[in-house]
Amino acid sequence: MIKPLKILAFVCLAVVFSFYSCSSDTSIEGTPVTAETYPNVTATFGNNINLNALENYANQTKPAYINKDNTTVNPITDKGATLGRVLFYDKNLSKNNTISCSSCHKQALAFGDTDIASSGVNGNTTRHSMRLVNARFSNEVKFFWNERASSLEAQTSMPIQDHKEMGFSGTDGDENISALLAKLQNIGYYQELFKFVYGDSTVTQDRIQNALAQFVRSIQSFDSKYDAGRAISPNDQANFSNFTTQENLGKQLFLAAPIFDANSSRIGGGLGCAGCHAAPEFSIDPNSKNNGIIGIIAATGIDIDNTKAPSLRNVTKPDGTENGPFMHTGNLATLQNVIGHYGTINIAPGNTNLDPRLAPNGIGQKLNLTATEINAVIAFLKTTAGNDVYTNKKWGNPFP
């Protein structure tokens, strides 16, 4: 005779198994994915999305030397990132159907923008749009230039709820995000995609955030000249055999710390770029403070809270064209301007948040750069440009 406690244990195990088998990240197993079962997806996206042969988002290869990862409780899945891709490119996420995430983060620009301030439904953004490539590969888990989002998930819905950007703010005459949820709930392809991903068709803010974050984290770039050299080298300090003499010089200048005299004037060593943008991810150090840029786009006053930056990978396209302008104000048009900014740091009145690495001895650094050094560092930065991220269909617009 089976004892009641054993029966109870068996039932509990069955419930647990059922919960994980039908978790919110799986569709109903055994149901064939056909044009008949998902007619709106088929009609809207055609061959751009094939639910029977999803793009590979979850199991992309990355180099063994890439160790940073800010994914926490929302791992990338092929289904979730597919939904995230649709959401990322869908102008229905704005109140007047004119702006999508991709309006400010363009694939052709490493998911950045050439405009100093990107256009929204009620004006322009207050900061330059940050490139999104390799957003996953950083110790820094906070997002936006001023780190106001505690995670990428939180970040994804903030532009949607911004009055100027996408217009579901609940202020200044805007409807709130509940209106967006109702709007998307009535769109046929979202009814089908949410059911495909989550097991039911309910549209929620959490589900939107998770799917968008999965898609953004999937955008990666590790097919650059730098990666080809790093793969066959023992470390970053060694000369890369596939690099030119100029590129290797630029790499050493980027990696090595400068040697300063008592007046913060460089008398030897490198430029110290890796102090805040360490190889091989070239992501921002979470402890970094303001970099000396304190302006505000189209406004007076100062803004000293901007302490995050995108990865330095893909600051240029494969052909060397720069993905500028740069900085949160977009005030530096070229990489030469960027290096020039760090070459002479002037501590502006009111900037109490300047990173101390830029002001040794309490005095703004003077790197005393030569033209040879500037050109070498730019040549090195160009080696981090990938190819696939600019053209791969899985990160492209799914709408015909």
From TrEMBL:
Residues 1-23 form the signal peptide. It comes from the Bacteria. Pfam families: CCP_MauG. Coiled coil: none annotated. This is Cytochrome c peroxidase. GO terms for cellular component: cell envelope. GO terms for molecular function: cytochrome-c peroxidase activity; electron transfer activity; heme binding; metal ion binding. Keywords: Heme, Iron, Metal-binding, Oxidoreductase, Peroxidase, Signal. InterPro entries: Cyt_c-like_dom (IPR009056), Cyt_c-like_dom_sf (IPR036909), Cytochrome_c_Peroxidase/MauG (IPR051395), Di-haem_cyt_c_peroxidsae (IPR004852). PROSITE patterns: CYTC, PROKAR_LIPOPROTEIN. It is found in: Cell envelope. The keyword Phosphoprotein does not apply. Residues 79-188, 245-385 form the Cytochrome c domain.
